[in-house]
């Protein structure tokens, strides 16, 4: 009697690591990208890296992963951004009424409707950053996000997730990179990675004063590639890499300068990796078109309608990327040098 034909087995999941750029409230775009990618069971997630908001997204994903796998990671990200919105509801910068109303009615909104660079609150923040230091307005232990992160972050779960995790911070005195992995990350490390110096006092880690990691590694890609050997690495960007025209208005100039500043470390890392003879399989999930018109100060807006718009925009961007590149993961890189020039 012939032996029964064995059932065909599905191919093993393809390993994927994610490097998450920072950008304040615009990190909700990455929340949406992650939410969609976590639905994709053909990928086995093995590692994460991030700076600033990217670091917080990475930590929350890892923590939720330890708690309940893919579903747990999605739920943890939802909870984090809901709490961020609630904590910032009294912030000085608010999106326009028309944008909030359209969002409430379920209408898709052009990104320029969320641009708040000309809002009164934005001018107030701009004035304050020139004349008022956080050392004049905050106590040594009164970081505005500390109570929330102390409540939400569970370092032991991050360590137990089984995912490699790297987040960056900048040494204030040396200007060098400080890198923390999953065995080290706690509340202070996340605060350090997201410490914009005109908003917050420097955060001390083992006696080293730290500022936002986005200045030197946004996000750290090289250590993620080294730790997740053989895995594809997808970089999720928030800051548009290119501009269609040369900006002429003051707010547009400031926005483009901000983008260039926070993209420079990433571009340096990616160019170096692509130039290697055994270059890793790199991919880019970018917000170039979707977030181009948002300006600088919407990065400080935590209005729930705005965060939900960013999340949905991130999900749609991930969906388009998957449609074009799903089959390439595990086979070939889709990031080309031309995209970085």
From TrEMBL:
Keyword Glycoprotein: no
Record key words, sorted: Hydrolase, Lipid degradation, Lipid metabolism
GO molecular function (one): hydrolase activity
Motif (DGA/G): 212-214
Keyword Lipid metabolism: yes
Record-annotated PNPLA domain positions: 18-225
UniProt cross-references to Pfam families, sorted A to Z: Patatin
Active site: residue positions: 52, 212
InterPro entries: Acyl_Trfase/lysoPLipase, NTE, PNPLA_dom
Motif GXGXXG positions after renumbering to this chain: 22-27
GO biological process: lipid catabolic process
PROSITE patterns assigned: PNPLA
Locus of motif GXSXG: 50-54
PANTHER family: NEUROPATHY TARGET ESTERASE/SWISS CHEESE D.MELANOGASTER, SLR0060 PROTEIN
The name this protein goes by in its record: Patatin-like phospholipase family protein
């Amino acid at each position: 009697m012939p032996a029964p034909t064995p059932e065909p087995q599905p191919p093993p999941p393809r390993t994927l690591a994610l490097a998450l750029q920072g950008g304040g409230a615009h990190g909700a775009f990455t929340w949406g990208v992650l939410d969609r990618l976590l639905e994709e069971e053909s990928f086995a997630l093995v590692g994460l890296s991030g700076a600033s908001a990217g670091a917080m997204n990475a930590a929350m994903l890892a923590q939720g992963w330890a708690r309940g796998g893919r579903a747990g990671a999605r739920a943890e990200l939802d909870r984090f951004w809901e709490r961020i919105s609630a904590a910032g509801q009294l912030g000085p910068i608010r999106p326009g009424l028309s944008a909030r109303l359209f969002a409430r009615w379920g209408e898709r909104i052009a990104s320029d409707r969320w641009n708040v660079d000309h809002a009164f609150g934005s001018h107030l923040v701009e004035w304050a950053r020139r004349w008022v230091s956080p050392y004049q307005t905050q106590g040594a232990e009164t970081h505005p996000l500390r109570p929330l992160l102390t409540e939400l972050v569970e370092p032991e779960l991050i360590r137990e997730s089984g995912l490699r995790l790297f987040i960056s911070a900048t040494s204030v005195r040396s200007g060098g990179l400080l890198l923390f992995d999953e065995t080290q990350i706690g509340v202070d490390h996340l605060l350090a990675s997201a410490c914009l110096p005109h908003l917050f006092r420097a955060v001390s880690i083992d006696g080293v004063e730290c500022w936002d990691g986005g200045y030197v590694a946004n996000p750290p890609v090289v250590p993620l590639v080294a730790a997740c050997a053989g895995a594809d690495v997808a970089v999720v960007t928030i800051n548009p890499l290119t501009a269609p025209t040369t900006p002429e208005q003051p707010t547009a100039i400031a926005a483009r300068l901000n983008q260039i500043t926070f993209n420079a470390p990433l571009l340096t890392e990616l160019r170096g990796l692509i130039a290697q003879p055994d270059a890793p399989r790199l991919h880019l999930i970018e917000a170039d078109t979707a977030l181009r018109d948002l300006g600088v100060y919407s990065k400080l807006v935590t209005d729930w309608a705005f965060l939900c718009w960013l999340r949905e925009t991130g999900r749609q961007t991930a969906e388009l990327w998957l449609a074009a590149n799903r089959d390439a993961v595990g086979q070939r890189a889709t990031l080309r040098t031309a995209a970085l020039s």
